UniProtKB/TrEMBL annotation:
Transmembrane segments: none annotated. It holds the Pfam family Phage_integrase. Keywords: DNA recombination. The lineage of its organism: Bacteria, Pseudomonadati, Pseudomonadota, Gammaproteobacteria, Alteromonadales. It comes from Catenovulum agarivorans DS-2. One of its GO terms (biological process) is DNA integration. PROSITE patterns: TYR_RECOMBINASE. It comes from the Bacteria. Residues 2-182 form the Tyr recombinase domain. SUPFAM superfamilies: DNA breaking-rejoining enzymes. This is Integrase family protein. One of its GO terms (molecular function) is DNA binding. The keyword Transcription does not apply.
Length: 186
């Protein structure tokens, strides 16, 4: 499995969303758009139930760390979530699997990580990008860092405990740090 990267360009972020919508499904485009706004690990993103959303907040316990994520939903995430709820009022999960005929007679389940991986890989290949499920989380971290230059905020958002891990995670390389030192003269 190859390492995936943050998407560092807003136009590419929008293009990925568009291609997911037309090449795979609206649901996969929604996974991308909501995932990029919530910065959750894919297992936590896919496990979101509508009952986890309380007004303009998402509250859930992360499966990997056991930490509680209490996330303020931005306007775009709220609009997308409300649209999904309108299209699928009886769904339990935000990203519920519903295409198979067998799902009508079984307990509801979320989309699988594998289905999302396959969709993202398809679009990534078309764009010649190493695109995967972690790309959403990495992209959100990278964009926040570019906007604020505050690594502490990025660490808090991603719920990381080490700066070095966060820098590596969002794709800030030693070359970029060296460039910053070279270009910023005081």
């Amino acid at each position: 499995m190859c390492e995936v990267h943050a998407i560092k360009d807003a136009d590419t972020i929008r293009l990925i969303s568009h291609l997911l919508s037309i090449r795979v499904s609206k649901q996969m485009s929604d996974v991308w758009n909501i995932g990029i706004n919530l910065a959750l690990r894919i297992s936590d993103l896919l496990s979101i139930q509508f009952s986890d959303i309380q007004g303009d907040r998402l509250i859930l316990r992360e499966s990997k760390t056991g930490k509680v994520a209490n996330i303020q939903l931005n306007a775009k995430a709220q609009i997308l979530i409300n649209d999904i709820k309108l299209r699928h009022p009886n769904h339990v999960y935000l990203f519920q699997s519903y295409r198979s005929r067998q799902t009508k007679y079984r307990k509801p389940k979320p989309l699988t990580r594998r289905a999302v991986c396959d969709a993202f890989r398809l679009v990534g290949e078309e764009l010649n990008l190493n695109l995967g499920t972690h790309s959403m989380r990495k992209t959100r971290g990278y964009m926040l860092y570019q906007k604020t230059q505050d690594l502490g905020r990025v660490m808090k958002m991603l719920r990381h405990s080490q700066e070095s891990a966060t820098l590596r995670y969002i794709g800030i390389t030693q070359d970029e740090i060296d460039c910053d030192f070279k270009e910023l003269e005081l």
